[in-house]
Amino acid sequence: MIIIYNYMKGIKVIGPSLFPLILLVPLQFFEKQRAEFELQLQHRTDQLNHKLEEAMPRLALVNNMRFLEQIEDYREETRKLRRRLLEFGEEAAWINSEEALFQFPLSTYPELDELKNCLLPVWGLLGLCQSWRTTLCKWMDGAFDELDAESIQETTNAMLK
Prior knowledge:
The chain is mostly helical.
């Protein structure tokens, strides 16, 4: 016998015949919630895969970088794409953590790895090009007496690495 005390109605005694019903309700609720969370996880996984597929054609930008005058535009476009890649990486990490909770096999995202492997070196190169252009303008158009041979050598060596 289980005694349940309700402040409004007083004491209520539940017999052993109602035990299975009492245990069944939370189990059904748990299974319903689990199914909903699994559907939500699948939906977010599908969304991420769709976003990655949409981002792949933007790599064509790398092939069309031909003009040094437009380096700021190229850098801005790659910055936007890099920011989206970071968001995709965070989303993939969240999905993998949820899959681990559900004891599902962890998803892999080869498109995300490919985008990162292609974009990050280009991002670094564009930063170096922009730094070189800024430094070159300062050296060529700035005051000659403000130039320091040691700092020029250090800057040049750092950019060559």
